[in-house]
Amino acid sequence: PVAAASIGQVYKAVLRADASPTGERMTVAVKCQRPNILETVTLDLLTIRGVVDFFCTVPGEGNKKLRQDAQGLLAVLDLAATRFLEELDYLQEAANGARFEREMNAVPVMRDVVKVPSVLLDYSSRYVITQEWVEGVKLTDLEGDPKYANEEGAALRADVVRKLLNAYMVQFLETGFLHADPHPGNFLIQPDGRLCIMDYGMMTEILPDQRLAFVEYMAHLTAGQYSKTLDDLVTLGFVSEELAKDPAKREVVGPVLAQTLSALYAEGGGLDKKVEILDQQAQSRIGEIGDKLEELSKEYPITLPPYFILILRAFGTLEGLGLSTNSDFAILEECFPYIARRLLSDDSPRMRSALRTFIYGGGDRLNVAKVEDLTRGFGSFTNAMEAERKVAVTGEGSLAVRSSATPSGQLDAATKELLELMFAPEGNYVQELIIEEAVRAVDSLSRDALVQVWQRLPGAPPGAL
InterPro entries in the record, alphabetically (predicted)? Predict the structure, then answer.
């Protein structure tokens, strides 16, 4: 075999011309499942579930917390077990791969950036899956190869992580079909620079309403509007609605949530640095409020919805990859370019509200710094994806860092798209905001001019306007 894992092995083979969908000899990857793996895994899962189920029913008031934790773990285990058993069904994986390829190709900014190898359904079964063979360098090899152990190699790895994160943001918040097993061995960097994503046994689906709620949450978190993030967490199923409706309880939860979220996501660095920040907070007034929150959590526990487990696993792995290239890697900061693009290009009512909240901060004064952040993030994502697309289309790629610089005298892709948004004949919310600010500016200038004229008139009483 050319590769092996816990449940299967991969072989390289060649289809005869008369058996190939292309009519020519075709190199393929054939993954075969190990014998009796289903029975072994099922027995292990049943045993673990029996133990957890026992703790769910331990009697006594003093064991209430133990029962709550066990019930939460049981929900997680049931989800993980279902997905793991699905991973053993190669027909399901083949269907996942075909759907994943179709949906990623349907997103213009991803079409020429991400490669999903085609599945050959006619040569796949419950225990065997056949896909087109793809050449490239595995991310694991990129990390361990001495020839990439220099500044250029570090920049290349950082570029790959950025590309990965952008691809996952599109899956998470746009297509809603997320590859939930992002360990380095599942990624290839092709000679033309495209990112190849493999292994579709573990996928998860994010519903449209959840996708919108996550965009709102990240927009509010990035803008520092932590009170709104509490409402977002209620919508997403993390926090009890009853807790969020009580003003006194919000006063307890709000400050702690703000500081904790900032430390975990807005700050860069690994676990040790985040723990250090949280320890410092524990010594402050936030720490005193945190004691109240601990008491409150006994009545209203913050839960992790089962659907979020695989999402958390995926982005936790991506953050680990990011930290391997940059010790100050901040996941929220790296995700923001996609959020900025989504806020400006999605004209749905909820995205309109999130955009307004982000740039006005809940008031009526435009925050120029936030507008700059938004346009900079939009430009970063759009230009980076366009640079990747051009390289793939022209076939002039190589395993090197892409430059998103635009030749002198030409508009870059982000500027073109922003201009299209501003002058779109069908109209959109960005145009409405520009008009609103223009009217406000004209009104202010007109008033200032009128005041100056009035003050120059003989006998005009001061402060009459």
Answer: ABC1_dom (IPR004147), Kinase-like_dom_sf (IPR011009), Prot_kinase_dom (IPR000719), UbiB_kinase (IPR050154)
At 371, list the tokens.
């507008």
Give SS3 for 196: strand
**Cα–Cα distance between 51 and 28 in angstroms, integer?**
43
In a 13 Å sphere around the CA of 195, the CA atoms on its Cβ side amount to: 31
User: What gap in Å lies between CA 413 and CA 313, rounded to an integer?
Assistant: 33
Q: What is the pTM of this model?
A: 0.77
Is 161 within 8 Å of 142 (Cβ atoms)? no
Q: Is 389 helix (H, G, I), strand (E, B) or coil?
A: helix
Q: Which two tokens stand for residue 325?
A: 């290239």
71 neighbors 56 (Cβ within 8 angstroms): yes
Amino acid 350 reads: R
φ/ψ of residue 189, rounded to 5: -105, 115
Q: Is 407 exposed, middle or buried (0-12, 13-18, 19+ CB in 10 A)?
A: exposed
Angle at 51 between CA 45 and CA 55, to 5 degrees: 140
Would you tell me how many other CB atoms lie within 10 Å of the CB of residue 16?
Answer: 9
Angle at 132 (CA atoms; ends 126, 135), nearest 5 degrees: 130
* Positive/negative CA dihedral, 128, 134, 140, 145: positive
Give the whole-angstrom CA distance, residue 231 versus residue 237.
10
> Of 26-40, 138-152, 348-362, which gets the smallest average pLDDT?
138-152
CB 386 within 8 A of CB 405: no
Q: What tens digit of pLDDT does each residue of 289-337 get?
A: 445 445 555 655 566 676 787 788 888 888 888 888 888 887 778 888 8
The answer to whether 268 and 330 are in contact (CB under 8 A) is yes
Q: Is the separation of the CB atoms in 344 and 378 below 8 Å?
A: yes
Closest residue by Cα to residue 95 from 211, 203, 208, 206: 203
Q: What is the distance of C-alpha 50 from the center of its chain? A: 34
User: For residue 10, what pLDDT is reported?
Assistant: 93
